[in-house]
Design a protein that fits this description.
The complex is a heterodimer of chains A (503) and B (160). Chain A contains 22 helices and two strands. Chain A has 503 residues and is an all-alpha fold. Chain A has a two-stranded antiparallel ribbon. The mean pLDDT of chain A is 85. The chains are: A mainly alpha (503), B mainly alpha (160).
Chain lengths: 503, 160
């Protein structure tokens, strides 16, 4: 009952004209970047984050979250029409979506993707709404050792699933911790890793690293692999985008499967929507009466992964909002957005900022409806984005990146750092170092060091405090098992296979 | 990039990146040793960096050793896409130069030059098209960010 009352108040916030407007802007932009291969929601949110400083925090977060889940809708468009996933989570949609398009059912495939995204996106928000408050209550009993253990566990899961080489993922995370440590120490006045530069005394702003590594790194990577696919025609008219009753009937289980699996996987840090979409596709195929037809253009093959991909968003927001632990690069940037507005996601978030939390949840219901309405009739319009030439798009991204960084501090030094982190992002891509662990290490670095040092202050330097408390010990044991997994050949083979399947 | 040659190239990349990260780890350890490791109140500023510095060195060495142990490429391999890498690095250099020029030229002019460079040099578009793109791009930036959103843009010697 409490939840329904709170949700009602959330709707009052979400339905304010200004918030409706920014929600629309967010989902529209999200769909647009989702359509564009090579520009993801993480890069877009990072670029636009500094530009939202003048907005009220609730409106800004509603817009940024809209970009996050809107991109999931848009990602399917290129997968179906171009056989190129707009987002990594849409890789599996290519299998049946593109085949449907080749058979002249592009409209139905796009329609199924939109409907499935709507159903699963809504289920994901319901899950978030139901799971977040009790989890936050439980986390109220956490102290520094539990928080430290929780962050170690979150990082371990991200590292485990971030790339083929766990060593590289761990190294990327350590570099993130190092960058986070730059500036004046949290507890003393020692300046660390500042190279004698006063500009680094306040540390390196997260936005600079995120924009550099994600946005510029992606553009430079795309610049290296120039190549264009063939766009299949999009049928015009709403009627041509609606699937038949038989197709919808075939997707009944896929809608449910995608919704539930996507949400559950989303709650786990590091797993992400790519894995969620693969698992739901696998489950759908396993329970299908005609598994042999998967890959030839069956609607369930589009509905299940697209649903999982969208439901995952609601799941991913659970640890972010209740524990303050992001599970991916994009949620790490959202965490930074909260921090920039002086808000601290965690167990007290719902209690201290009910308007913001419930407003955000309610806006996601509204945003999902907007996305369905937007995506069905406007798919041909969004597909036109694919015709935008790289020589036009890339300078725009460069420009927005510079404006975004300059808006944070009015410092040209930071713009120089942006160029350096752009090169780092490109080199990481080139050398197959995953970027998510770096970003998470950077975002969690300060909090992790603080939690560790506070824990050791509590115990007067005795490390056993981390293993003598049951919850902390349990989380550290799980983290250790995850990190030691690659030492066991069979387990590592399974891990690598899962990552390879994710593309 | 495929097969043995690809693996070898990657192994080279692993070798150099591992060496660079080992050096970074060594630097972190060296710096951390100059700060207090433990104070009367608890861990000092050197505590956390020392441990992740050590982890960085150890993991980098694992990367270096595994790169060295990898097999050599077969004869006649096609190798890495150096022109592609060159294109990416050239674009990065142009971007960095445009950032360095911000102090004197401001965002509008340096972004116009960068757009012109990307369209004309990197994508081989006709000068007219490149110029139109550059003008359209900076006009859009000025209208959206400066006039509509009121965002402060880097200003050059010419006052814009």
């Amino acid at each position: 009952m409490d939840i329904l009352l709170s949700l009602g108040q959330g709707f009052l916030v979400a339905l304010e004209p200004i918030n409706l407007f920014w929600c629309f802007v967010g989902v529209f932009l999200g769909t647009a970047v989702g359509v564009m291969p090579g520009l993801g929601p993480a890069a877009t949110i990072a670029m636009l984050l500094p530009l939202t400083f003048q907005m009220p925090p609730t409106s800004a977060l509603i817009m940024l979250a809209g970009i996050y889940y809107g991109a999931k809708y848009g990602g399917s468009t290129t997968a179906i029409l171009l056989n190129v996933p707009g987002e990594s989570a849409s890789v599996v949609t290519c299998l049946d979506g593109y085949q449907m398009a080749r058979k002249g059912r592009a409209g139905a495939a796009l329609g199924i993707a939109a409907i499935s995204s709507f159903v699963a996106g809504t289920v994901g928000v319901i899950g978030l709404m139901l799971l977040a408050p009790p989890l936050a209550k439980m986390a109220l009993s956490f102290s520094s050792p539990e928080y430290f253990a929780l962050m170690v566990l979150g990082l371990a899961m991200v590292v485990l699933l971030a790339g083929e080489s766990m060593v590289k993922a761990l190294l990327a995370m350590l570099v993130g911790l190092w960058i986070a440590g730059m500036g004046i120490d949290l507890f003393s006045d020692a300046s660390r890793f500042t190279f004698g530069l006063s500009e680094l005394l306040d540390g390196v702003d997260f936005v600079i690293v995120a924009i550099g590594v994600f946005a510029l790194g992606e553009v430079l990577g795309n610049m290296e692999r120039r190549g264009e696919g063939t766009l299949l025609p999009v049928p015009k008219g709403l009627r041509n985008l609606l699937p038949t009753m038989a197709e919808l009937k075939a997707c009944r289980f896929a809608f449910l499967n995608g919704s539930v699996i996507g949400f559950l996987i989303g709650v786990l840090p590091g797993a992400g929507s790519t894995i969620a979409s693969f698992i739901s596709y696998g489950v759908e195929k396993a329970v299908s009466k005609h598994p042999e037809k998967f890959g030839t253009g069956v609607p369930e093959g589009v509905a299940a992964p697209e649903g999982a991909n969208n439901s995952e968003t609601g799941g991913a927001l659970v640890p972010l909002l209740t524990l303050g632990i992001p599970g991916s690069g994009t949620t790490a940037i959202l965490l930074a957005a909260f921090v920039l507005w002086g808000l601290r996601p965690g167990p007290l978030m719902i209690q201290d900022n009910p308007q913001l939390f419930w407003g955000l949840v309610a806006s996601m219901y509204v945003g999902n409806v907007m996305l369905l309405v937007l995506n069905l009739p406007l798919i041909p319009l969004f597909a036109q984005i694919l015709k935008l030439r790289e020589f036009v798009l890339y300078p725009i991204i460069f420009g927005i990146s510079v404006v975004g960084v300059y808006a944070v501090s009015n410092s040209l030094f930071d713009c120089g750092l942006l160029a350096a982190f752009g090169l780092l992002g490109y080199l990481m891509q080139r050398l197959k170092f995953p970027s998510a662990p770096l970003i998470l290490g950077l975002v969690l670095g300060d909090a992790m060091e603080r939690a560790l040092r506070q824990s050791l202050m509590m115990s007067q330097g005795d490390l056993s405090i981390l293993v003598s408390r049951p919850i902390a010990a349990g989380m550290l044991i799980v983290a250790a098992v995850l990190l030691l997994m690659p030492l066991f050949r069979r387990a590592n083979a399974l891990r690598v296979k899962a990552i390879e399947e994710n593309g | 990039m495929s097969g043995a040659s690809g693996r070898h190239r990657l192994a080279n990349g692993d070798l150099w990146s591992g060496a660079a990260l080992a050096a970074l780890g060594g630097f972190v350890i060296n710096e951390a040793r100059q700060w207090e490791y433990m104070t009367v109140e608890g861990p000092g500023p050197g505590f956390f960096p020392l441990w992740y510095g050590i982890a960085m060195v150890l993991l980098s060495l694992v990367l270096v050793v595994s790169a060295l142990r990898r097999s050599r490429p077969a004869a006649g391999h096609t190798g890495t896409d150096w022109p592609g890498i060159g294109r990416a690095l050239l674009c990065w250099a142009a971007f960095t130069l445009s950032v360095l020029l911000l102090k004197w030229l401001g965002l509008i002019l340096s972004l116009a030059l960068l757009t012109l460079f990307i369209a004309k040099v990197m994508y081989g578009k006709p000068l007219k098209v490149a110029l139109a793109t550059a003008v359209g791009n900076v006009a859009g930036f000025y209208l959206v960010f400066h006039l509509a959103l009121g965002v402060e843009l880097p200003v050059g010697l010419l006052g814009f």
